[in-house]
Amino acid sequence: MSRPSPISATVDFDRDGVQHGFLRLPYSRDDSAWGSVMIPICVVKNGSGPTALLTGGNHGDEYEGPLALYELARTLDPKAVAGSVIIVPAMNYPAFRAGTRTSPIDKGNMNRSFPGRPDGTVTEKIADYFQRELLPRADIVFDFHSGGRTLDFVPFCAAHILPDKKQEARAFAAVEAFSAPFSMKMLEIDAVGMYDSAAEEMGKVFVTTELGGGGTSRAETVRIARRGILNVLRHEGMVDGAVEKLPTRWLDMPSGDCFCFAEEDGMIETMVDLGEPIEAGAVVARIHSTGRTGQAPQEIRARISGLLTARHFPGLVKAGDCVSVVAVVER
Ligand code: CA
Description:
Layout: E1 8-9, E2 17-26, E3 36-46, E4 51-55, H1 64-75, E5 83-88, H2 93-98, H3 122-134, E6 140-143, E7 151-153, E8 156-160, H4 165-178, E9 182-186, H5 195-201, E10 205-210, H6 219-235, E11 249-252, E12 259-261, E13 266-270, E14 277-278, E15 283-288, E16 298-301, E17 306-312, E18 316-317, E19 322-329
Parallel strand pairs: 4-5, 4-6, 6-10, 8-9, 9-11
Antiparallel strand pairs: 1-2, 2-3, 3-5, 7-17, 8-10, 11-19, 12-19, 13-15, 13-18, 14-17, 15-16, 17-19
Helix pairs in contact: 1-6, 4-6
The structure holds calcium ion.
């Protein structure tokens, strides 16, 4: 027998109606001896039917997901729902409260912490609760991301190429329904420990986004998030109303050649803007050393032709930072 999760939910997942509550995780510390981390959760349920598990704040410095999901929790009418919608707008709540990618408590990156541990760090305990309690309840899993403080993306909804083609087709159909300006066949740099992989390995339909970045949100990207999540729930037959279908351009990340990384520190100059075309071999960014004048910048060249889909965000880069992502336009 594995150890039970220390997290207790103040909501009843089997009760009809709207419940606003918490996932309470005991966390004893200097300023609160018998204290807890209180992760907000909302359950909207109407009868039997599929379960959707919706999350934002997997990384704490990304805002389109939380902005869409706190609003959905406030406004979703259970009479319009068939099944259960479980909403956790700020999954790594300590990171979200701090406005940082990782948790200030244990430096845990939620999306590298799966399957988690019931006897691990705070971040690992949250991951374990999702792994063993929430994911098994879900049919469709939607996890919002954006670029956070150090990346910026063209707004896209995404799913992964999977060995199970039926599971993959259901995920890409949901991506299409989301109706972001771009839809992505997504490749991960390092899929170990990701929530995505945990959900997919359980056979769930898993859909994600990258909707902007820079540690903030924009009016356009928040509109995309709010419309998109309702579209997905409507597409799945879980919320009344028609999908508000908008044109989307499909992008593909065919190999690791889509990524470019800085090899030295400096000041970055991106040579094309997000969404603009770039040819293989063209300079996508220059990194200027700033310690003295008279130094030639380091040129970083795109390794494939496509659209600039992501770029490093703040003006200074370090060796190893992801400078750019170029994706291929499919159709
Ligand atoms: Ca992210």
